UniProtKB/TrEMBL annotation:
It comes from Aspergillus nanangensis. GO terms for molecular function: FAD binding; monooxygenase activity. The lineage of its organism: Eukaryota, Fungi, Dikarya, Ascomycota, Pezizomycotina. This is FAD-binding domain-containing protein. Residues 4-342 form the FAD-binding domain. Pfam families: FAD_binding_3. Keywords: FAD, Flavoprotein, Membrane, Oxidoreductase, Signal, Transmembrane, Transmembrane helix. The chain crosses the membrane at residues 439-460.
Length: 467
């Protein structure tokens, strides 16, 4: 079949970043997206320092940096509007890691990624993959236009409603019905729904200052607003719902979104404005379920799934997209190493490659999934202890300690080993921050990832172990 070739399903953040990573590695690929590239869909993407390091390696960070204002200040409010925590943890994180935590428009991030791909002929929009067939030498896909394309492996980076995942499950079902059902039935659950939106932040009368995050905590619902781009507010309203499982997690309409806004119209993420005010000033907004879970099976023969197709987490700490970026680095590092040794790897070598990807990524995925779910429930005051912790424990944990714990987590994220590290990373790659906590337990790292809530996961786990 000639040079090794990767076929990619999905042209969102995971697919486009994977394509760019493969292009930098000199690996042949073709990407197929069912819709347009950089559509005006979705709302925002939060990117953390370990993802920004990958994007800097790919030459993308400078263009992103022009669009954003690094988040620096976070305020936490109760339902009565009282500020119970005024946090500078975001500033400390940037000081320790040399990179900020940012929010930006998802469509702008896609536009920048797309612009950096040199050979646009490898990108096929409005042309979804409809089926695939494996051969002794590779995989043959059929696309929406009826044409076939040949490659050596197929990557399903096509999201939570992955077509490739369904096709893979069908193939698995020919020999293992139970495993196939595990993939298609109940792999993800949903216990919260969320309004994702972007609103105008009029400089003459802004909802909030730039570089700021507002969190508000109610019983069974919460809200976050972040001003990470001049003139815009990215915001989220989280509401607890009855538990559902895929494929029966709900789909919502615009009328459903309007009804949620009407019901929670007085919710105030920060002083002087409500979610109804934000909704009326929206640029875009949608209502969706928050699926969460880690898929049991990630690959089969020459097919591998990535991103939301295999691990979906609640969005409160903003780690889902960053988890996918970690997966891109782990996979491409392994693929580059394999192709360096064996330009045309066998099926067994590819199976081993996929197994190593699973082995490296799954523990991180399960940790982030568990953590994200805890934070969602913490902010929605799901138990009396979580409510007590947010009001009376988190504010007493120093911002510097929270930042150091988060940094320990972030530093464990992989980079692209086949590309040079940025100069700042080279200078301190083997160095240890002065006073950095050594030998942190997993629970401590988990607590740090909350950024806003600090070490509450630690406290919660300690509490549970003593009852």
């Amino acid at each position: 079949m000639g040079q090794f070739k990767v076929l990619i399903a999905g042209g969102s953040l995971v697919g486009l970043t994977l394509a760019l990573a493969l292009e930098h590695a000199g690996i042949e690929y073709e990407l197929f997206e069912k819709g347009d590239f950089a559509p005006q869909l979705g709302a925002s993407i939060g990117l953390h320092p370990h993802s920004l390091r990958i994007l800097e390696q790919l030459g993308v960070w400078k263009d992103i940096e022009k669009e954003i204002v690094p988040l620096r200040h976070r305020l936490h409010f109760d339902g009565d509007g009282r500020c119970f925590e005024d946090s500078t943890v975001l500033k400390h994180i940037q000081e320790i890691l040399g990179r900020p935590i940012i929010f930006m428009e998802r469509c702008k991030a896609l536009e920048i990624l797309h612009s950096h791909i040199k050979d646009k002929s490898k990108l096929h929009d409005r042309n979804a993959i409809t089926s695939y067939e494996e051969t002794d030498e590779g995989v043959v896909i059929t696309t929406q236009d009826g044409l076939t394309h040949h490659g050596h492996i197929l990557i399903g980076a096509d999201g939570i409603h992955s077509r490739v995942r369904d096709l893979m499950a069908k193939e698995i079902g020919k020999t293992n019905v139970a495993l196939s059902q595990d993939i298609t039935e109940g792999a993800f659950t949903s216990e919260y729904k969320c309004i994702f939106a972007v609103s105008r932040n009029d400089p003459a009368k802004p909802f909030m200052a730039d570089a700021t995050v507002h969190n508000v905590y109610y019983d069974n619902h919460s809200a976050i607003a972040a001003s990470g781009v001049p003139g815009l507010v990215f915001w989220f309203l989280f509401v607890k719902t009855p538990l559902t499982r895929t494929p029966n997690c709900p789909r919502f309409t615009e009328d459903d979104a309007d009804a949620v806004i009407e019901e929670y119209r007085t919710v105030s993420p920060g002083p002087g404005y409500t979610v109804k005010d934000l909704w009326d000033a929206r640029v875009k907004g949608t209502l969706a379920p928050l699926e969460e879970g880690v898929l049991k099976q990630w690959s089969h023969n020459r097919v591998l799934l990535m991103g939301d197709a295999i691990h979906k987490v609640t969005i409160n700490p903003g780690l889902g997209g960053n988890l996918a970026y970690e997966g891109i680095a782990r996979f491409t590092n392994g693929l580059v190493s394999l192709l360096t040794e064996t330009p045309t790897p066998s099926q067994s070598q590819l199976t081993e490659l996929f197994a190593r990807f699973d082995e490296g990524q799954r523990p991180r995925a399960e940790m982030v999934n568990n953590l994200s779910g805890q934070i969602t429930r913490y902010e929605a005051q799901d138990t009396w202890f979580l409510k007590f912790a947010s009001r009376h424990l988190s504010p007493w944990v120093s911002d510097k300690l929270k930042a150091k714990a988060y940094a320990a987590f972030s530093k464990k994220g992989p980079c692209l080993e086949y590309l040079p590290l940025p100069e700042a990373d080279l200078a301190k790659r083997m160095a240890t921050e002065d006073g950095e906590i050594q030998g942190m337990s997993l629970a401590t790292i988990l607590g740090g990832v909350t950024v806003a809530t600090g070490l509450i996961s630690v406290l919660w786990q300690t509490y549970r172990s003593n009852i």
